[in-house]
Specification:
The protein is mainly α. It has one domain: MetI-like (MetI-like fold, Orthogonal Bundle). The protein is about 75% helix and about 0% strand. It is built from 11 helices and no strands. Helix 9 runs antiparallel to helix 11. The longest helix is centred in the first third of the chain and has 36 residues. Pfam families: BPD_transp_1 (PF00528), OppC_N (PF12911). Keywords: Cell membrane, Membrane, Peptide transport, Protein transport, Transmembrane, Transmembrane helix, Transport. It is a multi-pass membrane protein. It is found in: Cell membrane.
Length: about 280
């Protein structure tokens, strides 16, 4: 009875069902890409260039004859790898930094926050092009760019929670019981400060996928012949004026669906958190 009730509650939330379904499709593409894709993603056949969708090339081919469907499937690995890696590294750096600057107030904390202001003042694409020029046009260069953008965001979220939590009575009780700063921060404050961070993770992965596509579109991200959605849209955009729409359309739809899945899951996570806190889900 309990499992049936929980199953009905899941299907009563279409956002959760759609988000999980789209996420499942992406993980299927990641794991089974060699078996799903009918052609190698970097195999070019000039004799098959600019073919519209047909029975052989389901989503058509690009200007050098690479199969678009195969490249979209394999690009899922690249885009999600960048998104998950950038967010994981940002969490690993931003959460401890936010915890420290929130707990220990003073000049060092103020300097760290001003440094974050300095980083966030750069337009993302200008920063991306500058770092790519220094580090080289590789996948991990994009990860570093996104990590630099997300660390201040996670640090600010954690810091705001810590500033509120450190004055609560249970923290004063922990001090009175003899707990040191390290125990208070990591045993009492951090677990209670992670709720908004968990919600932000899903949003940040979607943002990372979108920014990766944008950087590749302007030539500051992944380079050819690696399959990547933004890079495919960039090459297809040059053909749109000639009526060759399929090169840019299908990878663009892949970006939309991927970002949508993480946005829906973030919204559902926020509702779950609000309900768990005793609030009413909007």
């Amino acid at each position: 009875m309990a499992s049936a009730r929980s199953s009905r509650s899941v299907f009563a939330r279409p956002g959760l069902v759609i988000g999980l379904g789209l996420l499942a499709l992406q993980f299927i593409a990641i794991v089974f890409a060699p078996w799903i894709a009918p052609f190698p993603p970097t195999e070019a056949n000039p004799l098959d260039s600019l073919q519209p969708p047909n029975a052989v090339h389901w989503l058509g081919t690009d200007e050098i004859g690479m199969d678009i469907f195969s490249r979209i499937v394999f690009a899922t690995r690249v885009n999600l790898l960048i998104g998950f890696a950038a967010v994981a590294l940002s969490l690993g750096v931003g959460v401890p930094v936010g915890l420290l600057v929130g707990y220990y107030r003073g000049l060092p904390s103020a300097l760290v926050m001003r440094f974050f202001d300095f980083i966030q003042s750069f337009p993302v694409f200008v920063l991306g092009m500058a770092l790519v020029a220094v580090l080289g046009q590789e996948i991990w260069s994009v990860v570093i760019v996104l990590c630099m953008l997300f660390v201040p965001m996670f640090a600010r979220i954690v810091r705001a929670e810590v500033l509120s939590l450190r004055e609560r009575p249970f923290i004063a009780a922990a001090r009175c019981s003899g707990a040191g700063d390290f125990a208070i921060m990591f045993r009492h404050i951090l677990p209670n400060a992670m709720t908004p961070v968990i919600v932000q993770v899903s949003v940040s992965i979607g943002m990372a996928i979108l920014l990766t596509a944008g950087l590749s579109f302007i030539g500051a991200g992944v380079r050819l012949p690696s399959p990547e959605w933004g890079l495919m849209v960039s090459s297809g955009a040059q053909q749109m004026i000639l009526g060759i729409w399929w090169i840019a359309l299908f990878p663009g739809l892949a970006i939309v669906l991927s970002v949508l899945s993480f946005a829906l899951l973030s919204d559902e996570a926020k509702r779950y958190v609000d309900t768990g806190r005793g609030g009413r889900a909007r």
